[in-house]
Amino acid sequence: MDAQELKQVIGAGLLSFPLTDFDEQHDFNKSSYRKRLEWLKSYDASALFAAGGTGEFFSLAKDEYADIIGTAVDECRGQMPIIAGTGYGTRVAIEYAVEAERQGADGILILPHYLTEADQEGLRRHVVAICKSVSIGVIVYNRGLCRLNAETVEKIADECPNLVGFKDGFGDIELMMSIRSRLGDRLAYIGGLPTAEVFASACKAMGVSTYSSAVFNFIPRTAVEFYNASVNNDSATMDHLLKTFFFPYLELRNSGQGYAVSIVKAGATVVGKTAGPVRTPLCDLSPAQHEQLRTLIDRLGPQ
Amino acid sequence: MDAQELKQVIGAGLLSFPLTDFDEQHDFNKSSYRKRLEWLKSYDASALFAAGGTGEFFSLAKDEYADIIGTAVDECRGQMPIIAGTGYGTRVAIEYAVEAERQGADGILILPHYLTEADQEGLRRHVVAICKSVSIGVIVYNRGLCRLNAETVEKIADECPNLVGFKDGFGDIELMMSIRSRLGDRLAYIGGLPTAEVFASACKAMGVSTYSSAVFNFIPRTAVEFYNASVNNDSATMDHLLKTFFFPYLELRNSGQGYAVSIVKAGATVVGKTAGPVRTPLCDLSPAQHEQLRTLIDRLGPQ
Amino acid sequence: MDAQELKQVIGAGLLSFPLTDFDEQHDFNKSSYRKRLEWLKSYDASALFAAGGTGEFFSLAKDEYADIIGTAVDECRGQMPIIAGTGYGTRVAIEYAVEAERQGADGILILPHYLTEADQEGLRRHVVAICKSVSIGVIVYNRGLCRLNAETVEKIADECPNLVGFKDGFGDIELMMSIRSRLGDRLAYIGGLPTAEVFASACKAMGVSTYSSAVFNFIPRTAVEFYNASVNNDSATMDHLLKTFFFPYLELRNSGQGYAVSIVKAGATVVGKTAGPVRTPLCDLSPAQHEQLRTLIDRLGPQ
Amino acid sequence: MDAQELKQVIGAGLLSFPLTDFDEQHDFNKSSYRKRLEWLKSYDASALFAAGGTGEFFSLAKDEYADIIGTAVDECRGQMPIIAGTGYGTRVAIEYAVEAERQGADGILILPHYLTEADQEGLRRHVVAICKSVSIGVIVYNRGLCRLNAETVEKIADECPNLVGFKDGFGDIELMMSIRSRLGDRLAYIGGLPTAEVFASACKAMGVSTYSSAVFNFIPRTAVEFYNASVNNDSATMDHLLKTFFFPYLELRNSGQGYAVSIVKAGATVVGKTAGPVRTPLCDLSPAQHEQLRTLIDRLGPQ
């Protein structure tokens, strides 16, 4: 898939990141992961991010990463584009990106570099170097230590035709508006805050027309229902789901640091599609929290 | 005007805060302020905040405050509702609120308390006490040290029928969505970030249907044009104004701390409606910055 | 007391801020406050801050403030210097400072301005204007919105001979070291973080030779004991008190926002020297928390 | 070297992290790195951190890392202990730690995990897992996403006898004091803020008796002079060096994000011991900034 096709795909519908399955020894569970993809691709999403944030990219060894991307590509071939996460410092990020392209991924999502502060010029060089290391399309994720401003995003886009997407993980309205104002249709925009549904309306109004849904991992029907409501400006449905599910869910999620991922894994377990435990430094939800989550999920009816 | 009428007024159109005029000795310049109100009320705004943030509430002595509110009420009587700022600790905030009501203000805007951290219960008691000290409508401003969550806003609204508005100064999408989800039509919502136009689309999508425009102080025709474009979902007009005026303006504004107010006073001077200097701890823009601002304003054509 | 005398006093020993007494209606309780001062001045402190942060300066009306400063000056005349808090915007801060001097205060402590961001030049003008409004000595408090850098402090000190003290409320080692390096003995330095005892060793090593003790309000003997241990580099005593009292106390204090003041008022109540309730937006500790505090205090033995 | 020996070494003197040498293609320059170590080990430091923060750990590929640690161990064998950085998620951090031990490193420094928030329990498990993966001594670095509190550090120390050091990268006095109060002599404490000399006095007063010097890379004689002054409480020498070198140096360093490392590489170039360019996302200092730095260095005289 070339970069422009990827851009079309991103803009065309809901995105999601599958969880990465671990067994009881916390090793990658390939067969379970394969089943997960088989299940998820039957729902109406337009692409999957393999080994993204919700897929615990930050906890994977390099060889596991290759296995995960390869499995996802193999399982979804011809049915669902796979976008692979990359991250860390420039050299390591390039190693991951090149590996992902080699495995057949349709695009790359650049997660932030590691540890050090950097200025706009340094960030620009870092992102440009990764873009140039592959021929497939690239999405850059503004998050954490990587806070690109509009001018920098424009410079990168000018230099790298395969930069086709911008994912926002800050929710800073002024920043997002300035990027959208400057870059316009040059990029596709993706909402990338945890529990993106809460941000969907505001983001859409800023030209961020899609988002990646984490809850798609355990309530895919509801995730699609919400997304369609967003597309169709059906605020009654959105308001209802926000009130009855998403805000109570946020309360649970916000009760622990790092729960943005852990609660998704808990949700998968609750609905009988367990992906196993999270890896450290994350912690799994307690049994009592699992039950609270079950109550919220049950209210939504069958998926 | 009773509280429910105020709520209607807030929801009905553009809001603005007039600058407070100072003379060369930095004293309140009543005649200049009166002329400013006379000018501004000829434009299509639905209410004015007197002695709000842009009116340098934070720099006014108590007796000046009374004079300012009295002047605004007197000048705009029957033509434009006046909402008066209040702030500081509970007792002082009540003194200001009571004074404003005595002067004939149509509503109160509660700016944050001073200096100390406080928990939700303490904030609740603080806001409730102010609401109960007046019979006119009240708007609470979430900003700085006052970060009310949805549950607290709901408790205050339940206890205080005259709390009719919520003004958001954080731009935290999750927080704003949770408040809107919980309170719904119980309150009118106002965008309250500096240069609110940049936030207008995102805010409107969150149910924050109006905002207070600072640039109304020097480009009132453009401010109204932008507001009408927002109401009518005319994104072409909004995008054009954002690109040609607002983002370059932000760059200038963001070049100094405290410029969010100083630049508005500079704008008034540039268009021949000077409100005099700002008071410390603010600083006026430099002559070179005045010229940069003039260039931006001139592009917009006659106001 | 002239400014240089004040500087000597500050450097000579422990400082403290007495609580402000309120009755059950939350009104200023003058007779109770007078007794508090009578009690506290019998201990070995070198000056008292009346209507400072722990004295709930941020919750006082102007007329109460005058009464409090007047009472403190009257009660301590010839026995204990009184330094009066001031704060808010420039004009209001000057009103308070002038009132304090009129009431006979020996010095002024400038708490931060209100609400707005400001750059270094604006802060400089603000502090200079307050210094010039009085002839007594002034201490500036770096805290919250007022973050003066070394260059700005130097400019103010050059222009205002009566600026004799710098109180640090940030605990930013690089900032404090840069100020100390640039200003040297021109100023006296005071540690101004909540529960200053925890910071005493580090501060002393940075040339911040004294601090204002909040716990002096309820365990004055222990506060003096700790201070003397600090002066004498008696780390065994300091370590013991930190471990057995101060760190468990911090845990309780950190359990609520705004508790830095509330817990001191709770302590006064526990030891039979109640100063009444706190004012909103603060909240009093719960009865259970009072008991936890009592346990910690009892361990210290008679005061 | 067993863990207890490492602890003794840490406590015994100045530490430093050598830069990692890159050639013009930004590849690891082994011969240049070897010469650097040969030079640095002739000065009086007690251990070197290879591939630490100043050594651009965050930019190294795995195979380069092995080469760097191996080279450092080989070059310094029997003369200077080598402590190797590790970091990222648990599995990757263990891979690096095991590799370092295999290469003969004398200890491990754990830099923070990557990207995700985590609670204390998750952090604990992460650090414990790394400690248990090696038999050599371990130092944990509190920085960025890894903010261990005193209780968590104590739990890790209880479970892992080879945790022998704690390096502080926050400069939060309350946190550091609470850790020192709880752990006492169980650990050796290292100051780990950029340009650690500025923090030396305050840290020493908190029981943080040593630090790792970055400027040792280009002014080793001065770095040792400052360290000795610190050990001997020679505040005149420290104050003089702070005023004439370190604060002007900080001003330059603070002029760019990420300059904490770049300026050290610039310093090495200035003194004729170039380590080549920094890798992205860092940027090298401009020629003008190099000249400013040269002026500062020249003032110090021969090294």
Characterization of the model:
The structure is a homotetramer of 303-residue chains. Chain A is of the alpha/beta class. Chain A has one domain: Alpha-Beta Barrel (TIM Barrel). The first copy, chain A, is built from twelve helices and eight strands. Chain A has an eight-stranded parallel barrel, surrounded by four helices. In chain A, helix 11 crosses helix 12. The longest helix of chain A is centred in the last third of the chain and has 19 residues. Chains in contact: A-B, A-D, B-C, C-D. Chains A and D meet through helix 4 and helix 5 of A and helix 4 and helix 5 of D. Chains A, B, C, D: InterPro entries: Aldolase_TIM (IPR013785), DapA-like (IPR002220), Dehydro-deoxyglucarate_dehyd (IPR017655). Chains A, B, C, D: Belongs to the DapA family. Chains A, B, C, D: GO terms for molecular function: 4-hydroxy-tetrahydrodipicolinate synthase activity; 5-dehydro-4-deoxyglucarate dehydratase activity.
Question: Would you identify the CATH architecture of chain A?
Answer: Alpha-Beta Barrel
The main pleated sheet of chain A reads as: 8 strands, parallel, barrel
Distance between the termini of chain A: 31 Å
| Mean pLDDT across residues of chain A | 97
Biggest protein-protein interface? Answer: A-D, 41 and 41 residues
Structural class of chain A: alpha/beta
Provide the low-confidence segments of chain A as ranges.
none
Query: Could you please say which CATH topology of chain A applies here?
Result: TIM Barrel
Shape of chain A: globular
Quaternary assembly: homotetramer
CATH class group of chain A: Alpha Beta
Query: Helical element count of chain A?
Result: 12
C-alpha Rg of chain A, in Å? 18 Å
